[in-house]
Specification:
The protein is an all-alpha fold. It is built from 1 helix and no strands. The radius of gyration is 29 Å and the shape is rod-shaped.
């Protein structure tokens, strides 16, 4: 009987360890996802600036064409 109890304790300890590892992995994934979101946000901001600069450049080219 004690052998069975000992084995169950060992199994429970192993499950606890696995769950702790899964928790750490989930936290790492959440952190990386957040970082990627920030990169996408910055990329979107840069694309907006590039689009605005392109529009302004086109206006300047048209003005230069007239003169």
């Amino acid at each position: 009987m004690e052998e069975v109890i000992g084995q169950r304790k060992k199994d429970i300890t192993q499950i606890e360890s696995i769950m702790a590892n899964l928790n750490a992995i989930a936290k790492d994934i959440a952190l990386e996802t957040n970082k990627q979101g920030e990169k996408v946000k910055r990329l979107d901001e840069h694309m907006t600036v590039a689009a605005d600069n392109t529009k302004a450049g086109l206006v300047e080219l048209k003005e230069a064409e007239v003169h």
